[in-house]
Amino acid sequence: MPQNAPEKKLSKTQVKAVELLVEDELTVEEIADRLNIDRKTLFRWRALPHFAALVSETVEAAKQAARQKTIANKLVRVDALIDRHARMQQVIDERADWYKENMPNVPGGSTGLLVNGIKFVKVYEVDAKRKAAKASRWIPKKGDKVEVLDEGLANLRKLQPQQPPNHHGIIDEIWQDGSLLILFDDTRQAAPYPRHLVQPRTEEDDNVIYPTREVWPVNEHAVDTALLKEMRATEQQLAIEQGEWTEKRQTTGASVSLDLDKLNDEQLNEFERLIDTGMEPERAYVRARQSKA
């Protein structure tokens, strides 16, 4: 076309024909019927340079818009993953601060990776009837292993169930009034008790235990494996989205080089779609290369 020749403009019907051709949802016959024109007319239009040029421009604009949408969606996903990972890290940091302030002596608490929970344990006790019968026949002697029936010590054991028994000891002295000086095992301190608050204790007694109706709360600290698993999955997905994730695997053939510069726009879109479905990058690359160029 001469440089100074007036540009040929398309009619509204021709512009609509371009839009329908680019949408690629109808056949040529269906487009002609919708526009109420003869099919041969549509073929003649497609042969016109200015008509064909508009078709090419519209196709390229549609491809560019699709690519920009893909990139925008990817950026949104990456931002969401980064935000999610930051929030999980915040949980760890705040939990570490809580442990430092409230439970500084818990091993590993300052890492923020522990979960503090309460579990209830069932309380067991020795056979009281058997011990009472043995106690009624018992004649105290110095050095006997005993346990003290002290209500205050019993209440303290309930508050500290994980501590060693605080009511076990041995008879250190037998006084003239019948009182017994008990040397406690846990503190190595001695205190006098009347005879009726002391009963004999043997290893056999300690091993014969029965469940009671009581349960005691006990603090439990465990590594938060669920949070660690979720963080690792988020980090993996973030690396995949940014093209930085590779997996070690044994292969019997030559490895595939992921040279994305060899993919055209359509193949690149197909590659990104396959990756989003969870397909391995190497396989997705081969499939995209095999798609229509």
Radius of gyration: 42 Å
* Termini separation: 31 Å
Number of helices: 10
Q: How much of the sequence is in beta strands?
A: 15-25%
CATH class of the domain at 121-221: Mainly Beta
Main structural class: alpha+beta
| Residue runs with pLDDT of under 50 for 5 or more positions | 1-7, 249-254
Number of beta-strand segments:
7
For the sheet with most strands, the description reads: 5 strands, antiparallel
The CATH topology of the domain at 121-221 is SH3 type barrels
Strand order of the largest sheet: 5-4-3-2-6
CATH architecture of the domain at 121-221: Roll
Proportion of residues in helical segments: 40-55%
Helices and strands, in order, run as HHHHEHEHEEEEHEHHH
Shape: rod-shaped
Mean pLDDT: 79
Description:
The strands form two sheets. A five-stranded antiparallel sheet has the order 5-4-3-2-6. It has a two-stranded antiparallel sheet with strand order 1-7. The longest helix is centred in the first third of the chain and has 54 residues, at 49-102. Helix 2 packs across helix 3. By secondary structure, the chain is α+β, with helices and mostly antiparallel strands. It contains ten helices and seven strands. Among the domains are: 121-221, Roll (SH3 type barrels); 254-293, no CATH class.
